[in-house]
Amino acid sequence: MPPLTDLLALLGIDLVLCAGGLRLLNGKRGMGCWTNWIALVCFVIFWLPVGAAQLPVLAYIRGVSSDLSVTLVSLACLGLCQRLFGVPAVAQREKIALYGAVAATAIFLYPLSLGWGDWDVYRAGWGSYGMLLALLGLSLLCLSKGFRLLPMLVGLSLLAWSAGLMESANLWDYLVDPWLVIAAFFQCMKTGAQGLLLQFRWPGAAAKVIQPQRF
Q1: Structural domain harbouring 58
Q2: What is the DSSP letter of 148?
Q3: How far is Cα 120 from Cα 116, in angstroms, rounded to an integer?
Q4: Does 22 fall in a domain?
């Protein structure tokens, strides 16, 4: 029986893959309700053992992707619930705030962790009180502005970190991962391009409230 951390890591990868597949298939002509069954079949197939070592397909994918953050897996679960069970979509402003925070964090975290400065930000993830206070302050600031998604994800990451649900003992690995960072930068560039386009075509339109969208 594999360790619990390995099972949770594989489950997280499976959920993210299924959520991504559903998003790609969403809106395709002729698919309709078949997308739900396709996602279920893929979820099962990824667990089938293959190769000489008889490891599940997810184990080979994990060798490339590494473990995914609690934040990314939680977003995948939220997206699956929206598409499969009709859970209300998250407001676009919530997503913009989250992706902006992730992108800003990555700009400082990865270069400094690679030795581009005198301060190793990654070291703070081993249990620095300063980092915990910073996360608390960020969460309280978001709540005061009416944002709930980011504080919820921070809270889930902290709970998982406290319980040691991942192989890593560093809090940063629970909060962000390279795949989430790539998605965050893409969404930020997409939002910025859309805002510039709206401003160019209809001055003042970019300031309007954007309707909720699905992940």
Answers
A1: 1-65
A2: -
A3: 9
A4: yes
215 pLDDT tier (thresholds 50, 70, 90): low
> Could you count the other beta carbons within 10 Å of the beta carbon of residue 105?
18
For residue 186, what are its two tokens? 């893409």
On the question of pLDDT at 13 being above 90, the answer is yes
Q: What is the pTM of this model?
A: 0.88
Counting DSSP H helices and E strands in the chain, the numbers are 9, 2
Say if 119 falls within a structural domain.
Answer: no
List, as own/partner pairs, every contact residues 121-128 make where C-beta atoms lie below 8 angstroms and the sequence separation is at least 24, other chains included. 121/172, 122/170, 122/172, 124/171, 124/172, 125/170, 125/171, 125/172, 125/173, 126/169, 126/170, 126/171, 127/171
SS (H, E, C) 90-144: CCHHHHHHHHHHHHHHHHHHHHHHCCCCCCCHHHHHHCCHHHHHHHHHHHHHHHH
Query: Does 38 fall in a domain?
Result: yes
Q: What total number of domains does the chain contain? A: 1
**Amino acid of residue 9:** A
- Residues 137-163, mean pLDDT to the nearest whole number: 96
With b for 16 or more beta-carbon neighbours within 10 A and e for fewer, the 52-64 pattern comes to: eeebbbbbebbee
Q: Does a structural domain hold residue 180?
A: no
